[in-house]
Write a structure and sequence with these properties.
Layout lengths: L14 H4 L3 H9 L5 H19 L2 E4 L1 H16 L11 E5 L26 H8 L3 E6 L33 H8 L5 E5 L6 H7 L2 E4 L20 E5 L2 H11 L17 H7 L6 E5 L9 H16 L3 E5 L7 H16 L20 H12 L2 H13 L6 H21 L5 E5 L15 H5 L6 H6 L2 E9 L6 E8 L4 H19 L11
Parallel strand pairs: 2-3, 2-4, 7-8, 7-9
Antiparallel strand pairs: 1-3, 4-6, 5-6, 5-10, 9-11, 10-11
Helix pairs in contact: 3-4, 8-9, 9-17, 11-13, 11-14
Length: 510
């Protein structure tokens, strides 16, 4: 692997604690070797030392986090049991409602909104004894592939501060990659957890649709959105997934079944006899040579571990991007209609005599950014009279064909694999004015969201051309999330044995 030159992010006192995995930190807390307060303070110090350059966070809850950490330490001392993540700091994508805490979705239209309630994800983090460090940056309302569409400025990739951290959840991935937090929560509508994971050398998982509650998640596209974990190791991701998942009666799309045994699968890390399918349509033209080389090497590793690898065709995947960029804007147009300056958030043009229509128009013009406006207009057009069947209806038919491709493939293999992204992280500003080029970053991740299946991205090395991380995508059937962790855990363990360390250790030093 060729290692890129990396920026000096500064700070050293907090270095040791912030570089430990969540699993190791949890074990140390359980053994009484360290306290949650010490870990939380180290993470806050790391944020203070680096976030002026990385800009992973929109809001850092320093006082609340330290207070919570002390309370967890006290509860543990009194014998209360929370679980393996007790006392572990977590960063939260700023698209989840958290009572009394700024929740902006990266948009000026919600710049001053403080929700009166908690998302189920927030409550489950609290039930697990986690400490929420703050809210991370994102493309506005999770619409983007680079975190450059945030109303509050872009996040930068810790591997190279001139490059993007992916999107829409670049803030969560960057916080983990910069050792600001051992864990983070993101959302994945078309790759917004997996794509940032791929370009920052971290692990990101999109659970089965309905596997993690969407209650309190500000909706972008309700049939596609899914919350999930961001971490530095497969086991850490599994532990967070287990804490977040499970049925929620407050979410009508929540699955009634329990979370699959993801932690056990991550620890098992054995692929002998598993059938692994290489998706023919998700490699080749348009993919960076260095990405394909690392992908081929990872497939060879799985073969050496005893997996049976075959090529599988999913012929309708080539239409996934077009279908997605009709379905998502249509649902976005509907969901974002609630932001009108009437009930909450930004309100512009109310001079006491303005009509409601004028206030709505001025508020939306001032509050939404260019990408949000682009997708709202596209979706409104696709849903309009005379065009609904031609665009939205046809896209839904394609979605059904893609789901059938997955179903047919999973009759032949246990999991499907591909590169997570066609390229490594691109430079800031390189694609921001070219929507089509930006959308192509999600070509490999979108099919999973359209079908409702689960998928993982984990790092498999650095591209020869630029020394930047490459991601490996594993896709499994709905409610077979444990297969992701079984394959991911085995591949990660083999690569760590080969390298002598996790890839993230090659990221910028503290």
């Amino acid at each position: 692997m060729t290692k890129t030159s990396t920026p000096d992010l500064g700070g050293s006192a907090e270095g040791h604690l912030t570089r430990l995995s969540a699993a190791d930190l949890g074990a140390a807390i359980s053994a009484g070797e360290i306290t949650s307060e010490e870990i939380t303070a180290a993470c806050l110090d790391r944020i203070a030392a680096t976030d002026d350059r990385v800009h992973a966070f929109l809001h850092v809850a320093s006082e609340a986090a330290l207070k919570r950490a002390r309370a967890i330490d006290q509860s543990l001392a009194e014998g209360r049991s929370f679980g393996p993540l007790a006392g572990i700091p977590v960063a939260l994508k700023d698209v989840f409602a958290q009572r009394g805490v700024p929740t902006t979705c990266g948009s000026r239209i919600l710049a001053d909104w403080r929700p009166p309630y908690d998302a189920t994800v927030v409550r489950r983090l609290e039930d697990a004894g986690c400490v929420i460090l703050g809210k991370t940056n994102l493309d506005e309302f999770a619409m983007g592939s680079s975190t450059e569409h945030s109303a509050f400025g872009p996040t930068r990739n810790p591997w190279d501060l001139t490059r993007v951290p992916g999107g829409s959840g670049g803030g969560s991935a960057a916080a983990v990659a910069a050792f600001q937090a051992p864990l983070a929560v993101g959302t994945d509508t078309g790759g917004s957890i997996r794509q940032p994971a791929a370009v920052t050398g971290t692990v990101g998982v999109k659970p089965t649709y309905g596997g993690v509650s969407r209650f309190g998640l500000v909706a972008l596209a309700s049939s596609l959105d899914q919350a999930g974990p961001c971490a530095r190791t497969v086991l850490d991701a599994a532990m967070l997934h287990a804490a977040l998942g499970g049925h929620d009666p407050l979410d009508s799309t929540s699955l009634p079944e329990p979370v699959p045994p993801v932690v056990e699968a991550a620890r098992r890390a054995d692929v002998r006899g598993m059938r692994i399918g290489l998706v023919r349509e998700l490699q080749g033209d348009g993919y960076q040579p260095g990405v394909l080389r690392r992908f081929e090497e990872a497939v060879a590793v799985l073969t050496d571990l005893g997996a049976r690898v075959t090529e599988v065709s999913c012929p309708h995947f080539e239409y996934a991007l077009a279908a997605y960029y009709l379905i998502l804007p249509s649902e976005c147009s509907s969901n974002l209609a609630r932001f009108d300056g009437m009930r909450f958030g930004l309100r512009v043009g109310d001079d006491g005599e303005a009509t409601a229509e004028r206030v709505m128009a001025l508020t939306r013009a001032a509050g939404f950014g260019a990408e949000a406006k682009r997708r709202i207009m596209l979706g409104t057009y696709a849903l309009s009279s005379g065009y609904y069947d031609q665009y939205y209806g046809q896209a839904q038919r394609v979605r059904t064909l893609i789901a059938q491709d997955f179903a047919d493939a999973f009759e032949q293999v246990d999991v499907l694999v591909s590169p997570t992204t066609p390229t490594t992280a691109f430079e800031l500003g390189e694609k921001v004015d070219d929507p089509v080029a930006m959308y192509l970053n999600d070509v490999a991740t979108i099919p999973v969201n359209l079908a409702g299946n689960c998928a993982m991205s984990l790092p498999i090395g650095l591209a020869d051309e630029d020394g930047l991380p490459v991601g490996f995508q594993i896709m499994a059937p709905a409610q077979a999330d444990d297969r992701l962790y079984r394959v991911g855990g085995a591949l990660e363990a083999a690569l760590v044995d080969r390298w002598g360390h996790h890839l993230i250790e090659e990221a910028p030093q503290p």
